Amino acid sequence: MANVDSDKTLRKMADAFRELAATVNSQTADVEVAPFSRACSFVSPLFGCLGIAFKFAEMDYVAKVGDLAEASKSIATLNAMLDRDIEGNCVRKAGSHTRNLLRVKRGLDMVRVLFEQILATEGNSLKDPASKAYAQVFAPHHGWAIRKAVAAGMYALPSKAQLMKKLNEDEASARVQMQNYVAASGPVILYIDRLFLSRELGIDW
């Protein structure tokens, strides 16, 4: 039974981010690109389960996590990755590792807020939790056309029960793993924000 449980998307996400959070909270080690990109890859299936409303996010997120995984073959830590882009004067260039890290971070944050909202909301609809998560994290960076398309897609979201089924979870186990991800991803997201802010790169571009 333990093996089946460890194969579940939410369990993989929660466990991987708990390990990253332990590194962040130790304050003695830099977060390495390889385990970070691996943890982020466990989040990808969740976007796929949310349907058309988050199709743009899924495609964008998966591509950028792939780029970070590729970068991990030659760059050890997130710190070093940002410094290399700063030296190469390509931080804000489309396709730069730094720009991709910022986009991936937003994906992680969107899922964190989505889980918080699901945990705080009664009923079977995901429309309110997903709308709030999108409005808080992605909408400020999107133009009118994308925001309108996402709003239309919200009506095609799975129900909470359908999402649980797609993730092979019952509600009780899902709530535990969602809470674990929310708790563990918070420090990791904050760590990434600080990487940018400490270098005066900003986080709103």
UniProtKB/TrEMBL annotation:
GO terms for cellular component: cytosol; membrane. GO terms for molecular function: ceramide 1-phosphate binding; ceramide 1-phosphate transfer activity. It holds the Pfam family GLTP. The keyword Ribosomal protein does not apply. Belongs to the GLTP family. SUPFAM superfamilies: Glycolipid transfer protein, GLTP (SSF110004). Residues 31-169 form the Glycolipid transfer protein domain. PANTHER family: GLYCOLIPID TRANSFER PROTEIN DOMAIN-CONTAINING PROTEIN, GLYCOLIPID TRANSFER PROTEIN-RELATED. This is Accelerated cell death 11. The lineage of its organism: Eukaryota, Viridiplantae, Streptophyta, Embryophyta, Tracheophyta. Keywords: Lipid transport, Transport. Coiled coil: none annotated.
